[in-house]
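Predict the 3D structure for this chain.
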Amino acid sequence: MTQNAQLASTLPSLTDPLAALCKAAGDSLRLDILRALRNDSFGVLELAQIFAMRQSGMSHHLKVLANAGLVRTRREGNSIFYRRSLPDATKRWSGVHEQLLNGLDELPLGTDLQQAINVIHSQRADMSRQFFARFADGTSAQQDLIAHFGLYREPLLGLIDGLRLPAHQQAIEVGPGEGGFLPDLAARFDRVIGLDNAASMLDRARQQCADAGLDNVECLLADALAAQPTLPLADCVVSNMVLHHMPAPAEALKRFTQLLKPGGSLILTELCSHDQSWVRDTCGDLWLGFDQDDLNRWAIDAGLVPGGSLYIGLRNGFQIQLQHYFTPELSTRGTAP
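Done. Predicted structure below.
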């Protein structure tokens, strides 16, 4: 072999990325992993549980997917979470990547796979409930370690006051906690409903509303991730620092959307993505904040339209984002909800 031939054999081929992608896509299990990661991220142990296999075997499949650029990782404390990589338009084979994901997303998950994912979500939800059951008396103080409500109350009110809502008949706050924001909503809407799955928190919220003499607020014990067919649709749904406690954020946005009237607005107050993993044990957080791109993608998938954004920097290293999403007017939806 000549020196030039030897050199050529060591140079990367333009088709190497395509070969890696085809290798990764040439296994039905790896394709199912990509389907499971459509709107969620999982740790290797969670994925091993979902697919009923050993951790070492799952790690191998994830390495193949990562080498092909189909998944990426994010370290949160001692854990590594895997998520799907979106196609990069600057890469030569991005069209193949995009067609692969679009084709997979057209397929239903199937009952067995969906049930296995639901088990993981249920385990995450149990962890969150257990935390708040143990530390109910100190939740406000712990939350203040991240961001005191007073730091974003006024910007939040300004955002709501600037909404062009078709009506101000009803607002729903998901996870009102001790009810600190319910009086502000009660002053702006004819009826306000607080939905929370923590009975102790709702008792405090009810007491706060009673002390304030509010007669247009109702606090209901309910899981916001479950369908709420008996509730009238709201003009505005508010979620303050709640999404990072929820086991399936993308699914939560779909549920929030189902609570809205056509032309209604969803207001999210959330942490931006961060790396302070101590909040898991101290504050019961399941997620270390969120990237706006992910929130927008989940919102669009839920049928929402992204509106305005506002960011508030905090001295303790966290950043808060206020995101506004809205549902299309009925005339642009084509059918009634």
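The radius of gyration is 23 Å.
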